[in-house]
Request: fold
Amino acid sequence: MSGAVGVGSRHDSGAGGGGRDTGGGRGDGAGDDAGALLRARLRRADEQIETPPGLWDRVKGPGTGPVPWAVAPPRRRPYAVVLAVAAAVAAVLLGVWWLVRPGPVAVRPSGPPRTVKIDVYNSERACRTGRSLECALRLARDPRTAYAARGNAAGRVWHGDEVTARCVVTDGLLIRDEAGVTSTRWYLVTSGQGVRGWLPGVRTRNTREVPECADDMP
Reply:
């Protein structure tokens, strides 16, 4: 009886083991088919991928870093560029002015030339009073022409008259008065009656500074 039981056990075991082996064989075949299908699809997709033009040239070119992307600079509007340039120029000019700026300048109001009041002087005592023609003193037209020459008379003044001297020349004709005083100074004056002419220096005892006449003074 022991031998019969042992034979049955071996038969059941063999039969059960045979069932498991058959099932395992069917599972391995399905997995192989799916893997083959996946590899076929990957191969087909790989074949459809195209290499971008010039890729290999860029890869083989100098440098090992990544190819930089070319980024176009932002476009500026024309008036913005003009304003930026104007602001830069103004800043430069302001800096230059600050470095070379002049010192304070005194602004003088324009006006008529400075004049000086002087008195007419007659060396003859007898002519210091009255306004006779014999005691009149001549205002000349030209300080470098003979004082008594005809046509060189611009007007008359008398002792004590106050006249307005605009300027003086120091190289006029030499004049001697009745007391022997000489001078080459001539004053360009205007009398109280508005007559303009040249008064010899010996016909005044002026003590005030009078500016010299310009070279182009008539």
Notes: The chain is about 35% helix and 15% strand.
